[in-house]
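Spend some time on the protein that follows and explain the fold to me:
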Amino acid sequence: MEIRYISTRGGMAPVSFPEAVMMGLADDGGLLLPAAIPDVRTRLDGWRGLDYPALAAEVMRPFIGDGLTDAELKDLVRRSYATFTAQEVVPVLAVGDTFIAELFHGPTLAFKDIALQFLGNLFEHYLKKSGGTLNIIGATSGDTGSAAIYGVRGKAGIHIFIMHPQGRVSPLQERQMTCVLDANVHNIAIAGTFDDGQRVLKEIFNDLPFKKRYNLGAVNSVNWVRVLAQIVYYFWAAFRVQERTGAPAVQVAVPTGNFGDIFAGYMAVRMGAPITRLILATNENDILSRFFTTGEYSMGAVVPTLSPSMDIQVASNFERYLYYRVGQDPARVCELMAGFAATKKLTAPGADPLFAAGCGGTADVLRVIHDCHHEHGYILDPHTAVGVAVAERFADPAAPTVCLATAHPAKFADAIVQALGADLAHHPILDALVDQPTRCTVLPPEQGAIQGFIRQTLA
């Protein structure tokens, strides 16, 4: 069965799953979505006892169709999660009254590995079949860059260019990227914010002649496969909590800045996952929490925080949700996005009862990290602490809360020291980076500068 993908802006013909994988950002400037969302409620009981790779193959199967055979999909999934150090891939732990789904047991200790290990293998699979090449461009606020690099480093036919905001990621996040010296890996520090990087990324992808000439692909969550692979752990976490509590459903707290992670949860709920509510948690960069409490999506200045991967004001995946919020009307999406580009503000009618939202600021983060360690002996990273802080406000006795833990705390030593008074979070992968050589190029956040670097490098 062939599965078709459409653009949120309606300006291109539907494409197949393999075409969607390699296209990344839609050619009309929109984001790709499946033409239909499968209803899997009758399959849930059969999925509960599966291990993580088997569940991943089942959840992703309805979105792939003829794009992969069953054997190919199962092989790709097994190889992708064989790199994880936890046998369960995503352990779900009880920490006080909250459950924590640890998404950080991949090679770069962040949740992005769950999607990017799979996407890297998928790129390689399709390139081997076609004999083609791919040049990946990405922008990162911290974790996407290293996870993408580790997903494709050394792979034949692929070059990867990752932009990160100079001085605005944690030192360990920077070293995880710039210590990778493989010939196909190119790190770029831009003198600006993550939002500048996202803007340049979209400008480059909207230059269709350049995109086609250099066979550009995307690893940011504008690539549908990023969302697809993340849907899986919502089912997984809900099943694990139900096993322990007997609850009919759960609620999931998601620390988010770019809306990709929580949009995967939205898709899981639309498919039939036993989830009653999504708790959207932002730091002081609260454009998303303000939207879900007021209906206004308005851009402000980026505020540096202890949770730098969420220091974002323009959430690239928000357009996917907006498409459903306005009744799957591409013309209305185009109108709203054009208005936002001009005025940095848009409003959407009504409310969505699936979402609760709140902001967890610096004081909340430090308190939650301290209290969690003092009471339970567990160290939260500052992003997960944002999620736990906001989740405290929405406790529901009928639906246990599971919070997504997005990164290992050792990646954010400064926050841990501030909260606990000592550098208590370490990991051997990170400790080994201290004396490693690095390679990086500093450029202005301008389309021409980045395209020129790509041309020169590939020449």
